[in-house]
């Protein structure tokens, strides 16, 4: 399935190619490093949606792959959508290996990935995802008023993956994580620096 056959509107379809190229650079140099560092709460906004970092293993290479994705939480599972269709590398990797890791804002999980094929669950996931993605979700259209047939068309072209958590993994904000250590240093060092500067100014005055 190429960009021209994805279930976007006529105007949005013309934007998919340029946006894909733009996001490739943004994801590599900005989104992936930020999410890897545990900065999901910073990069997640109402305009761009909440982002996670999905970690899969290459189907043939076995190498670690990291992909930033918009997500929603539905019925105790994390759901994500293949915005460029079922041929997306991360989607195929997840289905081939099933075991994935997810870096959420504030925590890291291991989970089992499966494609959502139940009609009712798939429709609910499409609506939840599109409404939670902010501006990117508008490329697909207003799913809240869309017919069930339109929702099914979207789900057929942009399949949904559900991740069922199986374990909580150490993350940067865990008690032993680097981010917690950095926060501790900041809370100790910064007040001390400000106090020293204040004392120096007082002596000069």
Q: How would you explain this protein's 3D organization?
A:
With 205 residues, the chain is an alpha+beta fold. It has 2 domains: 3-170, Roll (Pnp Oxidase, Chain A); 175-205. The chain contains 7 helices and 7 strands, in the order ααββββαββαααβα. The chain has helices at residues 10-36, 40-43, 89-97, 119-132, 135-138, 148-157, 178-204, and strands at 51-57, 64-70, 72-74, 77-81, 99-104, 107-115, 160-169. The protein has a 7-stranded antiparallel β-sheet, with helices on both faces. A hairpin with a 2-residue loop joins strand 3 (72-74) and strand 4 (77-81). The protein is elongated and about 75 Å long. The chain starts with 9 loop residues before the first helix and ends with a helix. The model has no long low-confidence stretch (mean pLDDT 83).
Task: Detail the topology: elements first, then pairings.
Blueprint: H1 10-36, H2 40-43, E1 51-57, E2 64-70, E3 72-74, E4 77-81, H3 89-97, E5 99-104, E6 107-115, H4 119-132, H5 135-138, H6 148-157, E7 160-169, H7 178-204
Antiparallel strand pairs: 1-2, 1-5, 3-4, 4-7, 5-6, 6-7
Helix pairs in contact: 4-6
Please summarize what this structure is.
The chain has 205 residues and is an alpha+beta fold. The chain has helices at residues 10-36, 40-43, 89-97, 119-132, 135-138, 148-157, 178-204; strands spanning 51-57, 64-70, 72-74, 77-81, 99-104, 107-115, 160-169. It folds into two domains: 3-170, Pnp Oxidase, Chain A; 175-205.
In CATH, the architecture of the largest domain is Roll
The main β sheet shows up as: 7 strands, antiparallel
User: What CATH first level of the largest domain would be assigned?
Assistant: Mainly Beta
Structure annotation, total helices: 7
Query: Helix- and strand-based class?
Result: alpha+beta
Low-confidence runs:
none
The overall strand count is 7
CATH-defined superfamily of the largest domain = Electron Transport, Fmn-binding Protein, Chain A
CATH topology of the largest domain: Pnp Oxidase, Chain A
């Amino acid at each position: 399935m190429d960009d021209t056959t994805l279930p976007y509107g006529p105007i949005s379809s013309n934007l998919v190619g340029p946006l894909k190229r733009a996001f490739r650079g943004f994801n590599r140099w900005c989104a992936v490093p930020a999410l890897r560092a545990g900065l999901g709460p910073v990069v997640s906004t109402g305009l761009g949606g909440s982002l996670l970092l999905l970690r899969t293993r290459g189907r043939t290479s076995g190498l670690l792959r990291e992909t930033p994705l918009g997500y929603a939480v539905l019925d105790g599972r994390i759901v994500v959508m293949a915005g460029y269709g079922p041929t997306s590398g991360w989607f195929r990797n997840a289905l081939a290996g099933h075991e994935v890791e997810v870096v959420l804002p504030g925590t890291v999980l291991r989970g089992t990935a499966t494609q959502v094929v139940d009609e009712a669950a798939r429709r609910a996931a499409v609506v939840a995802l599109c409404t939670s993605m902010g501006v990117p979700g508008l490329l697909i259209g207003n799913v809240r008023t869309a017919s069930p047939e339109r929702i099914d068309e979207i789900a057929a072209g942009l399949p949904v993956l559900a991740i069922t958590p199986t374990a909580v993994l150490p993350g940067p904000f865990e008690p032993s994580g680097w981010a917690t250590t950095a926060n501790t240093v900041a809370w100790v060092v910064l007040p001390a620096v400000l106090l020293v500067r204040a004392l120096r100014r007082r002596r000069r005055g």
